[in-house]
Amino acid sequence: MRRTLSFVLRLLISAGLLYLVARKIPLAHFVDSLRRVNVPLMLVSYFLIPVMGYIDANRTKMMADIQGMTLSINQIVRIGFITSFYSLFLPGYLAGGVIRWHRMGRHDNKPAQALATILYTRLLSTIITALVGLICWFLDTRARIRTPGFGIGLGVLFALLCVGHWLLFSSARAQWTAEWIGRRKFVPRIAAEKLGKVLRSVGKFDEVKGWRLTSTLSLLVLSELVGIASFYLVSVAMHLGLSPVTVGWVRAYIALVTLLPITIMGLGVRDGSLVVMLGVYGVAPALALTFSVLLLTRTIVLGLLGGACELWNIMRFRFASPGQA
What we know:
The protein is mainly alpha-helical. It has one domain (about 35-320). It is about 80% helix and about 0% strand. The protein has helices at about 1-20, 25-35, 40-65, 75-85, 90-110, 110-140, 140-145, 150-170, 170-185, 190-205, 210-235, 245-255, 270-280, 285-320. Helix 3 packs across helix 14. The longest helix is centred in the last third of the chain and has 34 residues, at about 285-320. The radius of gyration is 21 Å and the shape is globular.
């Protein structure tokens, strides 16, 4: 019942925000802007989606190896796509994260290690997203002059995330926290044991140093650059006249704000944010809304790739012989 109410509430918030945005935009202008889209460029943008998935799978593989997990890069890619498929129907990033955790954890029967890996990779990814967005904002002269609040927000978020990384992902602090929780009488023993296992798994990421750290950060930055290129191609397909650095900080903000579990697939939040941010560059609300819709289609394409992977899994197991099942 609680989950249903939460889903309905997010659905209502999404619908309300979309209504507030759409009521100020003539439908004819929106349809006309869709007709002007350069379809070949959009297709190239779609092609970059699995490229990003493959890059992200490589860095996740490095972190999973530290936890003693045996997932291959191809398996991690499929899990990422399948998670995107189910996220189309679930409220917020956290719900999709539960599916990712389940799929990764059951492979080696290491749920604690899988959870630690997901938390660590998500935190690192968010840190780099905020940093790249902040750099792009700083390089955008108009953004520095007219939208100082966005830059300050990205800077504060980056600092807080770095502090969070320092506090959470240290073997000494993780071990101390696990022992402290284990000594609390008000914490059920089974909960203390499971939390302790997760915390000790988290502490293993102290090993992310030297070449591992360099490789991980390089893959994260590469993924961000490919993501910016994908967004930029959509903006060029729409003839918005935005520079790559503008697209870079706008993309970072959209990626961060849609992590908030308040709407379905970021509907309403993404649309309203783009109307406000792109308005600084003289982009009409109808064009900003069209841009948002086209970005949503990228999410849907990624989900469809995941749906194809899940269907392949289902068919593979259904037609497997008893000896292979």
